[in-house]
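haha ok so turns out i had the wrong file open the whole time. this is the CORRECT one, sorry everyone. sequence first:
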Amino acid sequence: MTSIEVAGVQVDTRHYIGGQRIASAETFTNTSPIDGSFLGEFARGGKTEVDLAVEAARKAFPAWRDLGAKKRGELLENLARLIEENVETLAQIETLDNGALLRSHRRGVMPRAAMNIRFFAEWAQNELKHEDFETRGHTNKVSWDPSGVAALITPWNAPLMLATWKIGPALAAGDTVVLKPAEWTPMSASFFADLTKQAGIPDGVFNVVFGYGAEAGAPLTAHPGIARVSFTGSVPTAKLIAHAAADNLTPVSFELGGKSPLLVFEDADLDLAAHLAVEQYDNAGQVCLSGTRILVHEAVADEFAAKFAEKVAAVKQGDPRDEATDIGPQVHQKHFERIRGFVDRAKAEGADIVWGGEPNDELGGLYFKPTLVKNPRPGSEIVTAEIFGPVLCMQTFKDDDEALEMANGTEFGLAAVVVSGNREHAEKVTKNLVAGTIWVNCFFVRDLRAPFGGSKKSGIGRDGGTWSFDFYADVKNTVFAPTGWKE
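then structure:
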């Protein structure tokens, strides 16, 4: 079987290399987290398939580079339009494959994927410029030149949308791409490959290799034909990729883990704070940006906790295809067991589990109840490690100094949420937080013009606006002398 039927369309289970579908001698099984049902057997790639994909991308690169930003932008606009025309199909595919809410895929995630492609295409054409400047009468001209083949390794929690954060700027910059999607969620990348073909993107410009990290990801990141490596995932995997890329001095961009704080100050709107706290359970907690450490001023802790509990009680867990569902399953059995392990160890340490803390027996399968751990031991695993599930911790602080010490007290620095009723106070706090993105009295507001990335072990580099092109292109300065010209 070389395809899976979903929502009336066929999703190919083979690699997409040089515009052709290519099988592998071995396969891996893909199942749905919703009910554990069998979806299909996907081609299991390795060095052979990676070599073919990189060769195809390198062969296609000169023509794609020389096409120019305007023509590339027109083809990427075709692709964005095709995503929009297939939002329902993509939403059905993604929900079946990773268990996230169908309503979210329909209304936000898939339209956002189209927007990502369109935004970077337009940015490459209209915003990617720098004013000329003079040096002792000499003229400096800055330009962004396509760098070559970009290896993109993407995660499973929002597979297509997060992939387009990388695909959009890479293709718009004039690079060609080899994508290695997460093995737990390969389906949307395969259907997307078909859309690139329909959009008129030349063969070899976009390639997809399926498989495991050790078998397909490792030879891809170590390949001497790769010009850029962009990875979203865990810190341990990033270290392996960094070592592999170092042998070729290949530039890397990493968006890694988070253990972000959500700070609720004494002057905060507590109804707003409780609303924002519930949002941290989004996508069954499988969001790297989530404020999983809720830090509350001791003077308002009890009132906040009561409001938070009331809102959590209204949250419905169930089948993600149901419009009424708020929280679906975890993505995979291995990840489910990982989350349960964190909570079980916290219980063994005597942690106070306010609610949740166990699988949802009524639903069975991979459904883990939204969980709150109150006042866990400072420095304990549940406080410092990224769980990537519906597990939040709540601690109290007595003043701003203690709040900042707690907020900055992990190896991560991806994001933070601040809830305060005083703007001057909020600005003072944000100035001292170590995080790549900080939301004040809001959450998950994301503009592609803004820089996005993490501090400390949460990543290397920034995406968004010109920052993306600074990575995917070779930034060049050309200096013209004022003399020596013949009329």
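The first strand starts at residue 3 and ends at 6.
again sry for the mixup
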